[in-house]
User: Fold this.
Amino acid sequence: MRFAICFGLFLLTSCGGKEGFGVPGEGDNPPAEPGSEQNTDLIDCPASWTEMDNHWLDPDACVAWSSASSPMTWHAAVSPEESQAGGCSENCDQLQSDNYCAGLEIDGITHWRTPTITELENMTTSNPPFSNSDPDLWSLNSDAFDVMAWTASVAMPGMSVLLQKDSAIPVRCVAD
Assistant:
């Protein structure tokens, strides 16, 4: 009985978040109050993958995905705050303060971040229209020893692989 109640609450709360996400200048919802953390309008999630000028809208996760970056190390892709959430501990001192995703502004969207490995795996299995030649992409998730980080590839949907953090591969940033 307890499981059924918890599962029902999980479905109720997880399904409620797919109504839209912040993209400036689009949608019918009023902007957030001035001075609030997010001054963007919400748009409805598209029914299928939708290409915008410089990013893609993901219908399944209701997020925006950037184009793949140039190859870079994990340390250049991930912010110190994200690395802590991804399990990084003793090697976080190698992180750069101005990471790639946090510094992006694409089509007026400024709240980009490095995706989790779960987000990457889900994106790769939702038939994204990206090239199948996309190499592994960085996630913010580290291994238990802080030497490697989890990656996923569009060419191998759902598969994740650990790579050395000093390897040079792209990142696709996500905004929700």
